[in-house]
Amino acid sequence: MFLLLKEAHRYASIMIILDNEVNKCALCKGTGSLSRGRVCRCVERAAFRACFQRFRECSVKSYPTISLERLAGPTGRMSYGRKGEEYQADFILVARRVLSPLEHRIFRFHYLLGLEWKLCCQHLGLPCVNKGDSTNFFHKCDNIERKLGHVFRTLEPYPLMPDQYFQSPERRAVA
Q1: pLDDT by residue (tens digit) across 6-53?
Q2: What CA–CA distance (Å, rounded) separates 147 from 156?
Q3: Within 13 A of 107's CA, how many CA atoms are on the CB side?
Q4: How many CB atoms lie within 10 A of CB 45?
């Protein structure tokens, strides 16, 4: 399912792939927006998941893809780039800047390295004995997804949303 969000800034719309769970969101009831034009947390998490999915797609390629792009402007100059690797680097650097040290360590272990929650808790020195500890860990993961999703969606000059990041520069200049 797609949700079209109207943004106040210069990006007129952002397409975000939403999971079926967003339709069950108790806060927004599947609309994606709250009162006063605020965006619901489920949309921020969905934005993170879309970006993280593209990050994983870029990381499974066995060889880097080099692309030739026309630069915006009257000169018609061309530029070479490795969009997938640039996306991965931007994804990791933004996460490092935005997250607290503990959140970044959870992000590294759980999302980038793919460790289960109990192993993450052991590496981080967090308690992992009873069921409440898993709730605490996944609450932290939820906050990480929400925080990064918001930043990826609203990053300037170009968001890290895959549909906008992988556009050619001349198409971005028109939008």
Answers
A1: 443 323 334 444 444 455 677 676 666 677 777 788 888 888 988 999
A2: 16
A3: 25
A4: 26
Instruction: Give CA–CA dist 16/149, Å, rounded.
Output: 11
Task: Name residues whose C-beta falls within 8 Å of residue 123's C-beta, 6 or more positions apart in sequence.
Answer: 105, 109, 115
CB 159 within 8 A of CB 87: no
How many whole angstroms separate alpha carbon 40 and alpha carbon 153?
13
- Tell me the C-alpha distance between 69 and 14, whole Å: 23
Per DSSP, what are the bridge partners of residue 78?
70
**What are the residues facing 15 on neighbouring strands?**
4
Element (H, E) at 79: strand 78-81
- Both tokens of residue 98? 């935005």
